[in-house]
Amino acid sequence: MVRRIKDLPKPDRPREKLWAKGPEALSDAELLAILIGSGTKQKSALELAKDVLEAGRGRLDQVSFKELTRIKGLGKAKVSRISAALELARRHFQRGTPKVREPEEALPFFQELRDKKQEHFAVLTLNGANEVIQFRVVTVGLLDSSQVHPREVFAEAIAERAAAIIVGHNHPSGKLQPSPEDLAITRQLVEAGRLLGIEVLDHLIVTKSGWLSLRREGYF
């Protein structure tokens, strides 16, 4: 029996989740499910979204129009919406992929977190040329070393063959001083990155009034 999106608890439904937490909190499959809109008798919109991701082996930029038309359950309307969204994204990124070498160059990506009322932990993935691959929020809520697990932080970086990452989070309190939990998380991620061959270049903390680079301040 197909488990439809409307059978999920409301907080877990892609549209409701987007309105509650913002688009950055959704997975690629959840964002795609919103574009797809509705499923079929055999598959939910979320399952169809996963089929699209599998067609590109996790890389949407690798999915062609023809491949979309071959996915069972995607009609002309759904294929049109997805292909149009992908083409817009391709055109946008072709205008120039930003490079990040200094904390100031990564800051614009994390600044969107500064007004959040809860702590948001995000990851910026980079290729070997320090070009940005993707920015995504990993967790929402109070941070501790059990919640921000290396598995969650590095999962997409591994899939994207990233060479390095920059992590960051906001402090709703407005205090820039890193907490013991912040430092513990940083040490854990740096060590995991060494084992995986993905360097943790920095950990940024942002607030409404300022920001701090843990690497520049000598914390690691």
Give the gist of this structure:
It is built from 8 helices and 5 strands; from the N terminus they run ααααααββαβαββ.
CATH class category label of the largest domain: Alpha Beta
Helical run tally: 8
CATH topology of the largest domain: Cytidine Deaminase, domain 2
End-to-end Cα distance, whole Å, is: 51 Å
Going across the biggest sheet, name each strand in turn.
2-1-3-4-5
How many distinct beta strands? 5
Structural class: alpha+beta
- Radius of gyration equals 19 Å
Contiguous runs where pLDDT drops below 50 for at least 5 residues: none
Description:
The chain is α+β, with helices and mostly antiparallel strands and 220 residues long. 40% of the residues lie in helices and 15% in strands. The chain is built from eight helices and five strands. Strands 2-1-3-4-5 form a five-stranded mixed sheet, with helices on both faces. Helix 2 packs across helix 3. The longest helix has 19 residues, at 76-94. The protein is globular.
List the helices and strands and how they pair.
Blueprint (H helix, E strand, L loop, with lengths): L13 H8 L6 H9 L8 H11 L9 H6 L5 H19 L8 H8 L9 E7 L5 E9 L9 H10 L4 E7 L9 H17 L2 E8 L4 E3 L7
Parallel strand pairs: 3-4
Antiparallel strand pairs: 1-2, 1-3, 4-5
Helix pairs in contact: 2-3, 7-8
